[in-house]
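Sample entry (406 residues):
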Amino acid sequence: MARAFLFVLDSFGVGGARDADAYDDLGSNTLGHIAEFCAAGIADRAGLREGPLKLPNMSSLGLLEIARLASGDYPAGMHRPDRIFGLHGAANEVSRGKDTPSGHWEIAGTPVMFDWGYFPDKTDAFPPELVEAICSEGDVPGILGNCHASGTDIIAQLGEEHIRTGRPICYTSSDSVLQIAAHEVHFGLERLLDLCRTVRRLVDPLNIGRVIARPFTGETAALFERTGNRRDFSIPPPEPTLLNRAVDAGRTVHAIGKIGDIFAHQGVSRVVKANGNAALMAATLEAMDLAADGDLVFTNFVDFDQLYGHRRDVPGYAAALEAFDLMLPEIHRRLRPGDLVILTADHGCDPTWRGTDHTRERVPIMAFGPGIRSRDIGLRPTFADIGETIAAHLTLPAGSHGWSFL
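Predicted structure, serialized as tokens:
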């Protein structure tokens, strides 16, 4: 039997979404705009990176052809390789949201065809009855925030008051999410996780996709820092995914990073947590060494989105892409005959775009492994084609959505 490795570069969109205008994202292009800024010299940062965007390994896997296919243009300043290896194309999202669960579930063969619940941004984000329930059932003296906000900004603004009053910081975004930030020591990590479990139950009737625990440390605004103990409390996918099919067939699904949380631990055999792309890559390489015939290793590389996309940090995003690209040979060295690797994304988060939220974009598909020939697989109608390709590769039952491109 073969093995499969599915790696999501969180938020690495390639523009061109056919319905971007409906999300007020027409013209957004994460890869394209990062490359443009790099080529113009305005993504240079002393001690970090400089010059045009350099992704030689992903370019050899067809990334530049993917960009042209998805959005009509080659990324500015990037070197075009002499030869392309593996399958390459781009995929449209059919799920109604541009959020993490929608993207990942659709990748795993289960599009989200219902509307999530969202919180308003013109008034207090959370209705009074929900705030009252959080305080009474969560045993807290009140909440801070109650608004749409960037996580790092609101912790800097309200963290000291949170330490002084014991009130957790509650905020949201354009995603279907309620996030709770609290100090790991002064409030307590386990207390925060318990509070999030309570809030998860309270927002179920509102069809909110995730409740996220955002622990931080430090004693003053200048020193506050979010830790790697984030937890996502998601609702389960609406129907069985690729992961369920794999586990039901007796295979091991290795969930690296936040994959287990995203799927509400449905269809997951082994969970490995790690903080940051470097640690996630180390955990992924270890999982590749452990994976048996028929296994699936599924990793989310979160830094692209969490540290650079939402914070609109173009040099940071570019440097993270270049660092990831340099690690691809380590993945290739661990492949066995019959293995398949797919690199993709779950949505966009263009760091040059207005606001701090995700952007509606097509995502890249780069698939490679021993014996896989180079081929343009074109524009795929749904992310679910990725999951169905892996199902076919692992000889798992086909799902109800998507088609294999093997």
